[in-house]
């Protein structure tokens, strides 16, 4: 490594106004290394004798594999080895929902006699460098027996359609009616108003800037296959590798280096990661796989391609009487481990009512297999869609009932908490109504309603749109168990150790990949231990270091991981107090930990530094009180035992449509947000803004497309339009605080909300601008040509 | 037969002489042959800009240049921004404005901004936004990046 | 996404580059800024057996004015053109430095060259469009010497040109100033290749167009002129009504294809809009 060998200090940290570290905009511990190019991402790792691999991938969407010939590949200059599925004979990844409505299918690590999407891995090529590995891929010969590619859900459901897996019927992986109401039709028949929508949302790729990758190596001394993986879920990767390679779990160690974004795409196990690990074991040489962008866009994981037919019945005052929906999710070719291909339909069916009181509810949700890349959870998981569906229903009903669309929402918003909905979910307190009122007030105060009413100088048309929503976070074991996965995430475990000089290391089962947990979890522990966060080093993402963890996804880390840290640090603090009390000849209950000191609450001059206490605990253990073990360590698990905790927000958007080009430009984006106690305001704001940007991307820009043969047509970032700084507006945020009563810190999760609310808010703003055209758009992404057409072009 | 070339690269002031295969991109040469792993590869087709470095002071995508083409050139990478243990004003501003989350795109944005501010010391916020649009960030929504670069432009202007 | 192997050859002058093209055969390719070529090579969509690097031929980096017009050396970067707007060489050619700002992004413009862009021949590329609009001559050198090809004859189809395998572009000659010219384009993301691009060049005196030229990209495999619309500008007042009529005529005359970015009608609409916008900018100059 070249460079100057510096280790710059982060900026100064100060306590929050409440005198706590929780709530303070502490500078990020992560920043200095990332800003100086000294982060350690997986492709930054190097080893003597390192081999590089690349994959022979299917060039067709659906086919039998007649013959795979790797002879020429093995003769390519620099190629060390090449293996087919038969050569490696690995176990398969099988992600199961224990529900009768779910059909189990398996995902082989390498495809054998059948391929199911373009990009599916067929063989792994190992070479001296990444260039030669690709040369080897080029030389592989595959004979296919072409089948019919199923590229749309409509096609998948046609009678007599080719089945993506032989086990499937009607290509349906999951078909559930979790909330059934056979007489709901009568409510619709009698209602004053029935609003209906037909919504389609585009397929997306989460597009972390760092694609996936891993480096696997056999450690002969520890008898372990050590796999460095860019993942959100280290322990689950360990399980998958152990199972597929038929190794004991202790013989696999997964280490997560710095991760360049995940957004859900890295919370499932990649086939390539398992294959690379298998090859490293077989060759007893370090092997690296770094996914390239084309493979990431076409052959990693997708999400979001869904179709809804939904209707809601309203009384004349705008009160929702009933809600009915048919949901179809295009889940692609395989069920991914551990979350399964059921995650989108399950989420959609369970959470559709959202922030509104819905007395009657009937829903059917299906996961439909197609010959496209498999789907993984992506930031928000179905909630961007269900919020869009509900918010379009609200707008449509308001129009038909001649009511103000925001007043109609107010009539229906949940206002009394806790509220148990018809979907069986109990919603903890939030600020649903206040967030809407404040958001509207802000846009009124800024004069947007006046501007909307005036013609613009440049001929654009302004529209204002809102989305009201909540975001279930902190899914504990109980909430996850409802899904009936065979592995049930939920709790998390934290460990804290104070060494003999008083410095503290913290381990967490969560796995930060941009969220700044090295900073926020240190803040949580700091308040418990009377130390500044800079004195606490957070360690994560190593299955040998952490007892067990579920990683970072589903906005769980602050709520659940933070809870475990709070408890573990509290336990350690208790032990420190016992030792200090003994040394100070006081009662433990009278000792407080402040500013690195253990001191008597009423006589602060009676104090010891934590370093002095720690020294006794390790190096002069004979001075410990009787019955107290040497060392200063603590571990704690934390779980949420309810439905979870709900953050909430209202997004307000002003969009300008250019009739001449159909372009929608966002002029104003305002968020009123409530995620309970904010641990670090700077980081929370960053999560909201980044989330909104991804939501805008889904509303206006990004769509993974395939042609009729199942060939991906968006395999570059030239075609897949990740928005840049000129497409994403300034996003202003107002915070409300309704603390969670059961997460130890009062924090709710909030990593996904920005993404959840944005598509609906943007779509509503666009439709508001289209008022008077007779056109309403209910699907995303909103294409400029569609807006152009709606506005009558430039005629 | 590999087509090998002997080249000289001066990276952040340090001269390196090495043999590279002709097809090796400058990004791979910097990262894997010389260990400057702060330069990241996010797309290898010139869109994301994570690999942006300066070649003889001018910003360039290191994925769209072969190492051999840079023979004899002076390359600046993110590793050269801080000096004597002090973050540069730009690096500090990125931290203060929370212009990074996962940090993968960050080196590219820093080098882009470094080149831009050297050539255009008085940009408007809109001009900064336009230049920031050269690279992709998936985490931040760009606001912090635009603010950080604008802050630095302002403070450098005031201290001149 | 690593390129296939090739041999690397560095040219120090045009003669050397052309000789290398001859020696290395048809699969050899010149590399200038490489901003399109290397991306295609990384995808292995382009697999030249040899690359001849012409970047060290500093003699081809110039913007020069003489009696025949403005000469731009083939290796002049987009960014050089962009930042030379106020130089004497570009007097009357402000459209070139303005148009350069539409090309990709800053770090692309500092590497990419005008000659490379013309040789790549993307139908929506700014230089291709302006070359066609302004009746540029593409000066190319081969084994037997130099020849000039009118831009109108240079672009043959999707990414194909009149360039022979053993020739290289050395200069673009813009024969006449274009003080009332402008380019406008539309893409969903700024900096992307345009869905449709329009460029206009008006001869205006006392509020009347004596003549006008209109070029469109993204409506055909190559950038095209629209004589049906240009004729409406001839002798007409330089007003919004005239421009609208010309834009309408152009939209009616073109036969764009459909793709994921939009169907033919949408592209026609964009062509109409962008021509009007370019005309408005052109007379505002």
CATH structural class of the largest domain in chain C: Alpha Beta
Assembly level:
heterotrimer
Taking all Cα atoms into account, the compactness measure Rg of chain B is 16 Å
Instruction: Give the overall average pLDDT of chain C.
Output: 96
Beta-strand content of chain B: 15-25%
Number of helices of chain B: 5
What layout of secondary structure does this protein have?
The complex is a heterotrimer of chains A (795), B (160) and C (285).
Chain A: H1 31-35, E1 51-57, E2 63-69, H2 71-74, E3 79-84, H3 85-88, E4 114-115, E5 121-127, H4 130-139, E6 141-146, H5 153-157, E7 172-179, H6 184-190, E8 193-201, E9 213-219, E10 224-229, H7 234-245, E11 252-255, H8 271-283, E12 287-290, H9 293-299, E13 306-314, E14 320-332, H10 343-351, E15 361-369, H11 383-401, H12 405-412, E16 419-420, E17 426-427, H13 432-445, H14 448-453, E18 461-473, H15 477-481, E19 492-498, E20 504-508, H16 517-529, E21 536-540, H17 557-584, E22 591-594, E23 597-600, E24 607-609, H18 610-619, E25 633-638, E26 645-657, E27 664-674, H19 681-701, E28 731-736, H20 753-769, H21 784-790
Parallel strand pairs in A: 1-12, 10-11, 14-15, 20-21, 27-28
Antiparallel strand pairs in A: 1-5, 2-4, 2-6, 3-5, 7-15, 8-13, 9-10, 9-12, 13-14, 16-17, 18-26, 19-20, 19-25, 22-23, 23-24, 26-27
Helix pairs in contact in A: 7-8, 11-12, 11-20, 16-17, 17-18, 19-20
Chain B: E1 4-11, E2 14-21, H1 26-33, E3 52-55, E4 58-61, E5 74-76, H2 89-96, H3 106-119, H4 125-132, H5 143-158
Parallel strand pairs in B: 1-5
Antiparallel strand pairs in B: 1-2, 3-4, 3-5
Chain C: E1 7-10, H1 14-24, E2 28-31, H2 37-42, E3 50-53, E4 63-66, E5 69-73, H3 78-82, H4 94-100, H5 106-109, H6 114-120, H7 126-133, E6 137-142, E7 145-150, H8 151-154, E8 155-157, E9 160-161, E10 168-174, E11 181-186, E12 196-205, E13 208-217, E14 224-225, H9 227-233, H10 240-253, H11 264-284
Parallel strand pairs in C: 1-3, 2-3
Antiparallel strand pairs in C: 4-5, 5-10, 6-7, 6-10, 8-9, 11-12, 12-13, 13-14
Helix pairs in contact in C: 9-10, 10-11
């Amino acid at each position: 490594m070249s460079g100057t060998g510096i280790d710059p200090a982060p900026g100064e940290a100060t306590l929050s106004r409440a005198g706590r570290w929780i709530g303070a905009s502490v500078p990020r511990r992560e920043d200095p290394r990332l800003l100086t190019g000294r982060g350690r991402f997986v492709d930054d790792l190097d080893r003597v004798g390192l081999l590089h691999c690349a994959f022979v991938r299917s060039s067709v969407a659906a086919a039998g594999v007649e013959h795979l010939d790797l002879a020429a590949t093995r003769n390519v200059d620099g190629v060390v080895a090449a293996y087919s599925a038969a050569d490696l004979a690995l176990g398969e990844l099988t992600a199961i929902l224990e529900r009768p409505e779910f059909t189990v299918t398996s995902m082989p690590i390498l495809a054998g006699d059948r391929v199911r999407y373009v990009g599916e891995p067929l063989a792994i090529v190992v070479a001296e460098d990444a260039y030669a590995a690709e040369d080897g891929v080029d030389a592989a010969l595959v004979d296919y027996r072409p089948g019919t590619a199923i590229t749309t859900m409509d096609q998948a459901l046609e009678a007599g359609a080719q089945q993506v897996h032989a086990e499937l019927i009607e290509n349906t992986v999951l078909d559930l009616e979790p909330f059934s109401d056979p007489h709901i039709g009568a409510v619709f028949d009698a209602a004053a108003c029935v609003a209906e929508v037909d919504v389609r949302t585009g397929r997306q790729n989460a597009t972390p800037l760092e694609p996936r990758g891993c480096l696997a190596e056999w450690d002969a001394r520890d008898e372990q296959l050590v796999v460095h993986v860019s993942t959100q879920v280290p322990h689950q990767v360990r399980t998958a590798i152990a199972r597929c390679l038929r190794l004991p779990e202790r013989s696999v160690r997964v280490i997560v280096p710095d991760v360049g974004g995940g957004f859900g795409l890295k919370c499932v196990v990649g086939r390539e990661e398992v294959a690379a690990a298998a090859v490293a074991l077989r060759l007893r040489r370090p092997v690296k796989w770094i996914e390239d962008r084309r493979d990431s866009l076409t052959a990693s994981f997708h999400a979001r391609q869904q179709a809804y037919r939904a209707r809601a019945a309203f009384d004349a005052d705008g009160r929702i009487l009933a809600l009915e929906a048919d949901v179809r999710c295009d889940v692609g070719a395989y069920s991914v481990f551990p979350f399964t291909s059921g995650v989108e339909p399950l989420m959609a069916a369970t959470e559709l009512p959202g922030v509104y009181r819905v007395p009657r509810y009937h829903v059917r949700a299906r996961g439909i297999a197609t010959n496209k890349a498999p789907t993984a959870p992506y930031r928000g998981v179905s909630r961007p869609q269900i919020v869009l569906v509900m918010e379009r229903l609200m707008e449509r009903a308001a129009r038909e009932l001649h009511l103000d669309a925001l007043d109609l929402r107010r009539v229906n918003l949940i206002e009394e908490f806790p509220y148990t909905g018809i979907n069986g979910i109990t919603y903890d307190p939030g600020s649903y109504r206040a967030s809407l009122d404040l958001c509207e007030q802000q846009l009124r105060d800024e004069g947007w309603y006046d501007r909307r009413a005036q013609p613009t100088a440049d001929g654009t048309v302004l529209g204002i749109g809102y989305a009201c929503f909540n975001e279930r976070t902190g899914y504990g074991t109980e909430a996850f168990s409802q899904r009936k996965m065979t592995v049930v995430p939920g709790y998390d475990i934290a460990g804290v150790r104070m060494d003999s000089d008083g410095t503290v290391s913290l381990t967490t089962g969560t796995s930060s990949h941009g969220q700044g947990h090295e900073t926020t979890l240190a803040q949580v522990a700091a308040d418990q231990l009377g130390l500044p966060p800079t004195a606490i080093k957070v360690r994560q993402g190593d299955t040998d270091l952490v007892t067990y963890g579920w990683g970072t996804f589903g906005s769980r880390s602050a709520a659940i991981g933070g809870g475990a840290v709070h408890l573990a640090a509290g336990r350690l603090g208790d032990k420190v107090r016992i030792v200090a009390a003994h040394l100070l000849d006081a009662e433990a209950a009278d000792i407080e930990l402040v500013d690195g000191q253990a001191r008597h609450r009423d006589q602060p001059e009676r104090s010891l530094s934590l370093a002095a206490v720690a020294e006794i605990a390790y190096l002069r253990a004979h001075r410990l009180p009787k019955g107290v073990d040497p060392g200063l360590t603590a571990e704690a698990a934390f779980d949420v035992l309810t439905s979870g905790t709900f953050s909430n927000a209202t997004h307000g958007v002003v969009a300008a449509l250019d009739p001449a080009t159909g372009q929608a430009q966002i002029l104003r984006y305002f968020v009123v947000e409530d995620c309970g106690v904010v641990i670090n305001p700077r980081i929370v704001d960053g999560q909201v803004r980044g989330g909104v940007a991804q939501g805008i991307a889904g509303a206006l820009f990004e769509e993974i497309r395939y042609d009729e043969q199942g060939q991906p047509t968006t395999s570059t970032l030239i075609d897949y339009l990740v928005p840049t700084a000129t497409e994403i507006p300034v996003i202003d945020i107002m915070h409300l605080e309704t603390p969670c009563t059961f997460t130890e810190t009062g924090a709710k999760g909030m990593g996904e909300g920005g993404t959840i609310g944005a598509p609906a808010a943007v779509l509503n703003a666009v439709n508001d601008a289209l008022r008077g055209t007779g056109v309403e758009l209910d699907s995303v992404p909103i294409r400029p040509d569609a807006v152009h057409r709606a506005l009558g072009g430039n005629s | 037969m590999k087509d090998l070339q002997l080249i000289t690269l001066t990276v952040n002031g340090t001269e390196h002489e090495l043999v590279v295969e002709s097809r090796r991109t400058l990004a791979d040469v910097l990262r894997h042959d010389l260990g400057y792993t702060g330069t990241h590869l996010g797309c290898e087709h010139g869109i994301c800009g994570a690999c942006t470095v300066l070649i003889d002071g001018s910003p360039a995508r290191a994925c769209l240049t072969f190492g051999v083409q840079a023979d004899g050139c002076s390359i600046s990478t993110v590793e050269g921004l801080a000096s004597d243990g002090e973050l540069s004003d730009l690096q500090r501003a990125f931290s203060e404005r929370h212009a990074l989350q996962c940090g993968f795109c960050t080196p590219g944005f820093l080098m882009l901004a470094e080149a831009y501010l050297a050539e255009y010391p008085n940009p408007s916020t809109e001009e900064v936004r336009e230049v920031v649009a050269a690279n992709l960030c998936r985490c931040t929504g760009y606001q912090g990046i635009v603010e950080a670069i604008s802050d630095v432009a302002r403070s450098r202007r005031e201290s001149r | 996404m690593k390129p296939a192997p090739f041999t690397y050859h560095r040219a120090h002058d045009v003669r050397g580059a052309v000789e290398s093209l001859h020696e290395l055969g048809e699969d050899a390719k010149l590399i200038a800024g490489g901003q399109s070529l290397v991306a295609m090579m990384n995808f292995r969509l382009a697999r030249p057996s040899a690359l001849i690097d012409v970047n060290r031929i500093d003699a081809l980096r110039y913007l020069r004015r003489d009696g025949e017009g403005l000469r731009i050396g083939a290796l002049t970067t987009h960014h050089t053109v962009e930042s030379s707007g106020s130089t004497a060489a570009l007097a009357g050619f402000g459209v070139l430095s303005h148009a350069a700002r539409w090309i990709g992004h800053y770090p692309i413009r500092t590497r990419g060259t005008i000659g490379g862009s013309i040789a790549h021949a993307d139908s929506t590329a700014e230089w291709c469009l302006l070359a066609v609009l302004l009746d540029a001559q593409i000066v190319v050198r081969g084994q037997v010497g130099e020849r000039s090809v009118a831009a109108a004859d240079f672009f043959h189809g999707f990414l194909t040109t009149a360039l022979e395998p053993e020739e290289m572009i050395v200069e673009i000659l813009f024969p006449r100033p274009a003080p009332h010219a402008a380019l406008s384009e539309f893409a969903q993301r700024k900096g992307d290749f345009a869905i449709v691009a329009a460029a206009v060049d008006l001869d205006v005196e006392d509020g009347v167009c004596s003549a006008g030229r209109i070029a469109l990209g993204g409506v055909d495999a190559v950038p095209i002129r629209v004589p049906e619309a240009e004729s409406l500008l001839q002798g007409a007042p330089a007003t919004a009504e005239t421009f609208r009529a010309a834009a309408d005529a152009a939209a009616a005359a073109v036969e764009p294809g459909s793709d994921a970015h939009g169907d033919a009608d949408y592209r026609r609409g964009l062509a109409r809009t962008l021509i009007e916008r370019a005309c408005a900018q052109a007379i505002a100059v």
